[in-house]
Amino acid sequence: MDKLVAIEEAIGKHATWMSLIREAVLEAPTGIDVESIRADDRCEFGQWLYASHWLPEERATEYYQDVRRVHAAFHDLAAKVAMLAASGRAVEAYTLLYGEYVTMSGRLAIALRAWQAALRRGG
To answer: What is the pTM of this model?
Structure first.
């Protein structure tokens, strides 16, 4: 998959993730798999990000490292929101969801856009 296209798709999937986590807060499911949500290598973008197609010099770039770090933090926060919701702590889940989680989502989108711009420049 073309790297620029994959990054663009990842940006688009933020809305889907936000909807899924919001539903978890609203429904407070008891059987939610928090560890699957926390795992940043299980989503489609995470699988692409951790795949073996990356050259060592590509993995070493500041853009790749920043996206990887922020993507992991994004999943960690999503898991925290889901865990709070599943334990009946909806107000705390909403607070995290519409506070720090939204901020982290924006940071990931910014990191992805910066990486995209660097790839377009040939970097």
So the answer is: 0.85
